[in-house]
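Model: Ready when you are.
Researcher: Fold this.
Model:
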Amino acid sequence: QVRLVESGGGSVQAGGSLRLSCAASGYTYSRYCMGWFRQAPGKGREGVATLLPTGGRTYYIDSVKGRFTISQDNAKNTLYLEMNSLKAEDTAMYYCAAGRTSRSGGGGIYCDPWANDYDYWGQGTQVTVAS
């Protein structure tokens, strides 16, 4: 049984930092694309960052480049999202996801940020940034 459990959310002031964690179990971690998604009230789910466990290729949406870092601890089957210089617009429920689908492009294999390509989801962790 695949299980993804997020933790690390909370409330911070603008400019602050948070580190999200996602503990994965029930499947071979290295065989699935991993991603962090977020959903703000009244908005659709948005892919924030993705990581290809084998090789470590990453993707970030433009609005978080230079501020967020996705990483992993393969030995612990754990995905992380380090979020710095947080802004009010980063406020959302953040979800960890795993998916079998990977894409080819830009000289290699990568994990795309489209929610429909992800098969398993965690329960989410709330991030609130006060301006």
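Researcher: Now this one.
Model:
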Amino acid sequence: QVQLVESGGTLVQPGGSLRLSCAASGFTFSSYALSWHRQAPGKERELVARISNTAGTTTYVGSVKGRFTISRDNAKNTVYLQMNSLKPEDTAVYYCAAVWGIVTYWGQGTQVTVSS
């Protein structure tokens, strides 16, 4: 059974930091590219960051470049999103996804709220 379970979302003040984790099981984790997406209320889901299966390539949406870092630990079947200098506009439900060819698995999401 394929599972992606996000954790680490919470309420944080502007300027603060959070690390999201996504633990995977049920598939060959090291073969999949991994990504983090987010969806704010009333908005479409957007890609935030992506990391290749070998961790050799990372990409970020412009609004998070220099503030967020995606990483993966294939030994632990886990992908992370380190988020620094958080802004209120980063408030959203954050989802992780695993992609291999036309196959995509999604997690259930974790809420991140940036507010004073």
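Researcher: Key takeaway?
Model: The mean pLDDT is 96.
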